[in-house]
Amino acid sequence: MGCFIAPAVLGIFTTIFRKKFPKNWHVNWLNTMILGGMVVLGIDHVASGELVPWPPFLTAMSNPAGVAVLINEILTIGIPMAIALVLLWVGMVIVYEKVLLPKKVPSSA
To answer: How many CB atoms are closer than 10 A to CB 50?
Structure first.
């Protein structure tokens, strides 16, 4: 129910500070993956009734016992999901910069 919160915070952070990252880091790729995933997870959570358009928005927060479950889900699913996204992005950037980009540059020989 709240697994998308950790990646959402990361996405907001990287979007706000995107101009601070070096261009060759391709932070827009990370933002696209995070924000795209947030949309899909948001649709899934709305469809399953876990996310509603009225406060407290997350149905788990409607009772105190649900808040503990929500925090546990953020810690056990949301943070690992955000870490996995960052690792995938790092891998993409490395492959692009070290393998694919050198092939695009014409050799001077």
So the answer is: 17
Find residue 51's DSSP bridge partners.
58
Nearest CA-CA partner of 45 in 30, 59, 35: 59
DSSP 57: S
CB atoms inside a 10 Å sphere around CB 65? 9
36: which 2 tokens? 């795209």
Question: Tens-digit pLDDT profile for the chain (109 aa)?
Answer: 788 889 999 999 999 999 999 999 999 999 999 999 999 998 999 999 988 888 888 888 888 888 888 899 999 999 999 999 999 999 999 999 999 888 877 766 5
- Closest among 5, 22, 12 to 81, alpha carbons compared: 5
CA distance 10 to 30: 10
Q: Is 12 helix (H, G, I), strand (E, B) or coil?
A: helix
All structural domains of the chain with their residue ranges: 5-104
Write down the pTM of the prediction: 0.84
